[in-house]
Structures are given as C-alpha cells and as structure tokens.
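Every protein is a chain of amino acids, and every chain bends into a shape of its own. Below is the pair of lines this work produces for a single protein:
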Amino acid sequence: MLLPIFGHQSTEPEGPTKGHKKSRNLKTRIKSFLSNLTPIRRTLVFVVILFHVFLLWYLTLTIAHNLSLSLSPRAPPNFQAGESRIVVNIPPKTYGRLPNKGKSNIPLKTYGSLPNKGVSNVSPATHHGSLTEKGVLNLSHETHGSLAKEGVSNISSTTHGSLSNEGVLNISPETHGSLGKEGVLNISSTTYGSLPNKGCDSGRVYVYDLPTMFNYDIMNNCTEIEPPADKCDKNLNHGLGPVAREFAGMLPESIIPAFYWTDMYWGEVIFHNRMLNHQCRTLEPESATAFYIPFYAGLRLRKYLFDNHTAGERDWHPEMLVKWLQEQKWWKRSNGSDHFIMFGRMTWDFRRRGDGDADWGTRFLLMPAMQNVIRISVERSIWDDLEIAVPYPSIFHPKSEFDIIEWQEFVRSRRRNHLFTFVGGGRSKIKNDFRAVLKNKCLNESSVCRHVDCSLNNCVDGKTEVMAAFLDSDFCLQPKGDGLTRRSVFDCMVAGSIPVFFWRGTTYLQYEFSIMPEEPESYSVFIDHDEVRNGTDIRRVLERYGKEQIERMREKVIEYIPRFMYAKPSRGLEKTRDAFDIALDGVLRKYKDHMQSGRIGTNWNKI
C-alpha cells in the first residue's frame, strides 16, 4: 500500500549532496508539504501512517511465533496444539520410570530415567520425586507426589492423589492411584491408609513427671522385669528393642533398619517416649486438655504375675500411684476425668476381684480413684466406655513415609506358595485347646498350609521363621491369644497376609477410630470356632476365594498397615498418623464427648 501524494512535486534536481543538507532539505519539504494540506487531508495522512505501523508490528509478531514453533518439540499425539496436559499412569504396583511422552510407570526397583522433556531422570540416591520443569521428573528421597503446573510434578511425602485443573495432580494422603486419559485420575485400591496429621485441634496434653519408681526405675531394672529372662535389650531404641538384622538376605536391605525385635508388652515405654516428644504436648498444665499418667503398670506387674508373690505385692505400686495423684492440683480439679493412662497388657490383668494371693493380676482398675480415668490398652473391655484398644507393637517401625511405601510394595509383589499358615503350638495344659485343633488341621494339609511350631522356640526374637511363613501365605489363621486379642494378628497383616478369625472379639469388636477397616469381610475371613470343631473344612472355605478377591483383600490389609504400626521417630511421622496418633486423638475425642454430655468428674461407669 502506497501513501497518496498531495501538492506539487519538487523540481529540485537530485545530486550528490552532504547528509546534513539532505536532512535539512527533507525537513523543509515535509513542513512545506504539511502546511499546504487542508486539515482533513492532514488527518487522513496520519491515519494512513498509523495503519502502516500497526501492520508492520503484526507481521513481526507472526514471523517470530512461527519461528519458535518450528524450533520447539511437537505436542504428543491426541493433544491439541498448545495444550499443557500430561498423562500419568501409575499402576498400584509400580513407582518409577517415565517410558515415553510424559507417561509415568514407576516400578519398585528401577526408579527410572527419562533423559529429556517429559522424561524422568532419577539418580540412585533419589527415589521418589518431583517433575521439575516441563515434565522432567526428578525423584527425591523424601518426596512422593503432586503435579503442579504445566505437567510439573512436585511429589511430596504429604501428597498422594487428586487432579485440580489443567492436568495438575495433587495427590491426597489417602489415595495413590493412577492418571488415566487426558489427566483424569483413576484411583486404584492402593489408598495406603495413611491418615494425615491434623495438628492439635483436639487439644494439648500435659505429661506428669512421676517419681521414677513408677516408670524409669522399672525399665532400668530390666533384669527384674521377668526373671530369669534378661529384658535389657528391649530398652534400646526407646522401647522398640534391637534392630532385627537377622532379616538380612530375606528382606530388602534398605528396609531392614525399620524392623526391630519389639516386646509385645513394651507399649507403655513406647507411648511415654512418643508423648514426651509429641507436638501437642504442653509444659503448662493450665492449658492442657488432658493429662497423661506415664506409669509402667504392665511392666511392673510382669514381675509379680508368677512365682510366689502376694496380692499385696502386686497392688503396692498402683496404690502408691493413686496416693500421689490425689495430691495433685489438676487431679483434684476433675477427679481424674481428664486423665488417661496406657497399659501394655490386657485390661483383665488389672481387674482382679478377689484378694487371694492365687488370684490373677492386680485390682488397679477397680480402685475407686481410677473409675473416671480413660484407659488405653492392647485389649479393652467392650463393656467399658472409658477404654480404648490399640494394636500390640509389632516389629515394623518405619522412620519415614518412604519406608512405608517401600514395604507395602514389597509385600504386595511377593509370590506366595501356600494358601494359609498357622503360627503357634498346642497348649497341653488347656483342655480342648483350639490351637491344637488348628495345628492338626494344618499338618494334615501340609501341601497348602505352612506351620510354624512356637513350642520349639521358632517364634522367639532373632528367629525369622514367623515372618517367612506370613510372607509365603495368602491367609493366616488367628485364634484368640491369652485373651481375645493376639500380637500375631499384626505380624500377619504387616506381612500382607489375610487374617482368618474364629472369635469376633479378636478384632471386630476391639478397635475404634479407623484403626481397622469398618467392613470385616473387606480384609479378613471369619469362621466360627465351634464350626471348626464340628468339622468345617478350613481349606475348602479358603479355596472359595478367587485370585482377584484375594488380591483385593490383601490390598485392603496393605492399605491399613500405617494405622496399626508404631513409627520409629520419637515425634512420629511428619504427615502420617500411626497407631499412637490415632489412639491419642481417640482419647481427646472421647474426653470431649463426655465433657459435652456432662460426664466430667463423675463415675462414668455408673451412668
């Protein structure tokens, strides 16, 4: 397009003149030209000039954009030009490589490398990860999962699964799942059961500084806890016991530091240590919602349960504790109704009704002063509203969320050669002992049942036969223990084996606050013990479960592992609540419920 020419053309001859003369003549000519124009024509000239400037700017941008597209990588097929979506497909059994075009497929042991643009590059020292820029995945040791912007994944230990917008993945603590087509999240059954920590919304806890005779002296006099046995190694690692190095060669080397030979009755020490370091502990009793009494009642009782000890000896420490508590200002304020205690033994060991020396246990819980105190124990009375049941300490104590995920993947991928297993021995002193019934049934079905005889010292610390049996079997038979509950239930489930119960009180009626799944059939099998005695074939019952159903049930067991284990760090895990955290939250919730119903300072058992 050409500019129109108005006025007379110059008749001045062109010739070789100097630059500054040309500039001066040009300015004079422009001024003369514009002065000869009418206002309307002058406006029209300016409009035409502006149009040419705009046209030049537009052409420059278009050329630059086309040049950048020709130099950049092409969008993946099935995506429209300019879309920033990324497809991530993380199946339940994989964790680590991005093989092509932004698709994530992460196996346990490969931890992956994608060298460029949408490709994961994971060094041996970095395990789980984050997509940094434009789809490049860097998996760090402590991170596990969220896609931020433009397909960028920042996978933190706090996140495990949801899509927000434009293909952004934010993975919540309760889900792991997979991303399907065009950024759509498909959540698999791998929800891992990790409950997020909720801070201190429910309140804070004051820990009594008891005289050492009630806790540390008991623990430190470890040779007297269960004479003639020496229990001193159980004090290692804040009550978790020694590291189970005997699992070397059987378990992945990287996960062995998460396993300890923990005594099943050492829960009082574990709880005390965790409570001392808990984020919701307060040093100011005025601001406390609840008060924790760190008395090692179970460890103290253990010494006096056997041999020739009197009822008075068993009751002496509890009586001294009650006397001390009743002198405390905060006890007097509420009559103990905002106090709680943890027992590492069954509640029945503290409910002796008679006063004869031959009667079992102590009468601690039947003392009038204890009637308002909330009790945590490894087996509760289902008729007592003040009691909360917690899992027995097992042998798995992860130090991080990564330990949990690594162990879950290991037990999920195990090849299991036996249909079921039974760990235990017959007890000849008990008439019609049900364990002997199960032992005989297992031995008679040796092609499908693996038996570990605990009467031959196969189940003591340092022996790996129990773990090997559970890892090798789809199902594990779980009769009741000395009470209704049994530590073996949790050893079995930690190994990814599906428990078979014969009494409903073993698990179904014991645990609250989501420690176990609400639907028993989703993770376990129930066969009434009387039916077994009357001839029900355990093998035939278990063979009715198909492969897919067994996998679903095992996945539910694996999902709940974080909820019934006790973490290694004294402060717990950063973002995952374990059995201790769930129990403490249950105490505060129970106290709040009773406070709202007006039960504070009264004998709740009589209401």
